């Protein structure tokens, strides 16, 4: 995990080369992403620039850019390439690579193939830029786990950066956009999509139920993400997703003789997530660290958080606050890498509003849309709130092989199920895949725990207090001007208005505002993103039961049981 900043000079209209020292100053705005080392390169012929802020995870002494076989062949990379050793042993066996850093394989692959479709050879997550014999290439991983923006300045230069703050001054009056996931860019081709899985088409979701395949690909996804030369741990909220990841990781890390550190956070020791995480940690045998944050501290930190997050989305800000504070404590303990559970709710329709999906087709379309926009929500939150304190978050659920197995599954198997005790259960198929009779992964009360939004699970008082505070800071008169002040993504609550106001002060360009996508639940009257806004939540703020929740899956418990893995 690092900070990458690059400038493609080749599109510049006046051909005046950009100043390297100025580029380094802009890159330093994201120094928090890579406090260990920094390096830079400018191509003497083209003027293209690469600047890197490094958080050392693999081959701890390496400084980027990393050179290929010649001085004018250089790469900077943010992320992890989990199959880098396999690539060294196969595609690159004729080359003499000089480090054990996973990033190095990128420049050598480009030297061999000279095509952006090398991205399809990479098993991992990445935002990278390279210069090679006058060529310039930038690319982003398939679903945007790693954050990346691009901008265009007055002279037509293209800028690339993990964080928008490095682009606002130079490009804010012209263009700033999110770099599209699953694409690469060259000045000759523009943006080209390289990632085209079958599951982009909802009609391809016809795979029969195979719980063993789900279990196998998930375990493999977790194991490969234990690759690290730096200390590693697990985020443990006590919900299904992070608990499964923690359990799988704990088994493998113990087998390798590693100490397993787990981390949770809440507003106090009685927060729903903290209580659940405590039970999981005891069950799987981790060295558990429990932290608390004060609600007033969270409110006081909003401006700093929004500067790091670069979003005014209410859901992202609510959930990023506890993750920001937790990452700060994790870094103090010397841990640089943590595994987390992002992505499962999007793949399996785990959010409570999915109970109201009118049909299998609508359910599948919505899951695909959520996965394809993770880069604007949970991936953005996980990346930026943790990297504010130089902590890398890895997300096994967004592994390419696992996504292929899960998203292509017939949606009838992924729809919410009704349990024997009458409770509604989302992500039933995922729970069933790890509901083994022998060597259980989780206690039953956690395996079948209802979905909590992270911002809810840390303690319901956090969101309630935040809403009250924001309402006290925005007058009715000021709020009445919302559509005039903010015509794009107009805030529809005083909380949203307050967040947008801070964002606008930090990132005043219209281009910056256009990069944000609001997270809004579907198929429910209340548009508040909190899980408690759903009628299906056991602690719903409506307390109206589940009369509007219908069209549950008709897949029988007996059918699921027949497909269960036995160990």
TrEMBL record:
Entry's Gene Ontology BP terms: L-asparagine biosynthetic process
What keywords tag this UniProt record?
Answer: Amino-acid biosynthesis, Asparagine biosynthesis, ATP-binding, Glutamine amidotransferase, Ligase, Nucleotide-binding
Which residues participate in ATP binding? 235, 265, 340-341
GO CC annotation: cytosol
Has the keyword Nucleotide-binding been applied to this entry?
A: yes
Q: Where is this site: Important for beta-aspartyl-AMP intermediate formation?
A: 342
User: Which Gene3D superfamilies has this protein been placed in?
Assistant: Glutamine Phosphoribosylpyrophosphate, subunit 1, domain 1 (3.60.20.10), HUPs (3.40.50.620)
The biological pathway it contributes to is: Amino-acid biosynthesis; L-asparagine biosynthesis; L-asparagine from L-aspartate (L-Gln route): step 1/1
Active site, per annotation: 2
Catalysed reaction, written as an equation: L-aspartate + L-glutamine + ATP + H2O = L-asparagine + L-glutamate + AMP + diphosphate + H(+)
Q: Broadest EC class? A: ligase
Instruction: Please state every residue range assigned to the domain named Glutamine amidotransferase type-2.
Output: 2-190
Listed binding positions for L-glutamine are 102
Q: Which GO terms describe its molecular function?
A: asparagine synthase (glutamine-hydrolyzing) activity; ATP binding
Name the Enzyme Commission number(s) assigned to this protein: 6.3.5.4
Taxonomy, superkingdom: Eukaryota
Supply the name of the protein.
Answer: Asparagine synthetase [glutamine-hydrolyzing]
| Gene source species | Caenorhabditis brenneri
């Amino acid at each position: 995990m690092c900070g990458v900043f690059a400038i493609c000079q080749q599109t510049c209209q006046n051909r005046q080369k950009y100043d390297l020292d100025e580029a380094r100053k802009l890159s330093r705005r994201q120094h928090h992403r890579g406090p260990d080392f920094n390096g830079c390169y400018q191509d003497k012929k083209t003027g293209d620039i690469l600047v890197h802020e490094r958080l050392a995870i693999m081959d701890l002494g390496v400084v980027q850019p990393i050179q290929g076989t010649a001085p004018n062949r250089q790469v900077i990379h943010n992320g992890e390439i989990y199959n880098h050793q396999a690539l060294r042993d196969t595609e690159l066996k004729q080359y003499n690579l000089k480090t054990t850093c996973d990033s190095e394989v990128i420049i050598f692959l480009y030297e061999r193939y000279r095509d952006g479709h090398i991205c399809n050879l990479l098993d991992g997550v990445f935002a990278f830029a390279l210069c090679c014999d006058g060529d310039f290439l930038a690319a982003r991983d398939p679903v945007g786990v790693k954050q990346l923006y691009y901008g265009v300045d007055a002279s037509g230069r293209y800028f690339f950066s993990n964080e928008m703050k490095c682009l606002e001054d130079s490009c804010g009056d012209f263009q700033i956009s999110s770099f599209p996931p699953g694409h690469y860019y060259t000045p000759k081709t523009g943006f080209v999509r390289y990632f085209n899985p079958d599951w982009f088409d909802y009609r391809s979701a016809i795979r029969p139920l195979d719980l063993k395949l789900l279990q196998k690909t998930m375990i493999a996804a977790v194991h490969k993400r234990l690759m690290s030369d730096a200390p590693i741990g697990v985020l443990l909220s006590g919900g299904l997703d992070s608990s499964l990841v923690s359990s799988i990781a704990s088994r493998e890390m113990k087998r390798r003789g590693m100490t397993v550190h787990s981390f949770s956070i809440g507003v106090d020791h009685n927060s729903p997530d903290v209580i659940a995480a405590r039970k999981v940690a005891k069950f799987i045998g981790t060295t558990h660290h429990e932290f608390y944050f004060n609600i007033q501290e969270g409110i006081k930190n909003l401006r700093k958080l929004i500067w790091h997050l670069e979003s005014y989305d209410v859901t992202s800000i609510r959930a990023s606050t506890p993750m920001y504070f937790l990452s700060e404590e994790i870094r103090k303990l010397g841990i640089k890498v943590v595994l987390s559970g992002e992505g499962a709710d999007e793949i399996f329709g785990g959010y409570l509003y999915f109970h109201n999906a009118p049909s299998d087709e609508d359910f599948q379309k919505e899951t695909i849309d959520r996965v394809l926009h993770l880069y604007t929500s949970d991936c953005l939150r996980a990346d930026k709130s943790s990297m504010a304190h130089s902590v890398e978050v890895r997300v096994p659920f967004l592994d390419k092989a696992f996504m292929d197995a899960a998203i292509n599954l017939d949606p009838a198997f992924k729809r919410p199920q009704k349990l024997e005790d009458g409770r509604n259960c989302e992500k039933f198929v995922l729970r069933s895949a790890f509901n083994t009779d022998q060597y259980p992964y989780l206690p039953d009360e956690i395996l079948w725990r209802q979905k909590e939004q992270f911002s809810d699970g840390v303690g319901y008082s956090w969101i309630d207090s935040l809403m009250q505070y924001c309402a006290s800071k925005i007058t009715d008169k000021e709020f009445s001007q919302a559509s005039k002040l903010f015509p794009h993504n107009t805030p529809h609550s005083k909380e949203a208005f307050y967040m947008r106001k801070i964002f606008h002060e930090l990132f005043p360009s219209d281009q910056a505002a256009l990069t944000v996508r609001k997270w809004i639940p579907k198929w429910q009257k209340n548009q508040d993103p909190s899980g408690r806004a759903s009628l299906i939540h056991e602690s719903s703020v409506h307390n109206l039961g589940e009369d509007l929740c219908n069209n549950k899956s008709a897949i029988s418990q007996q059918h699921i049981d027949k497909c269960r893995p036995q160990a």
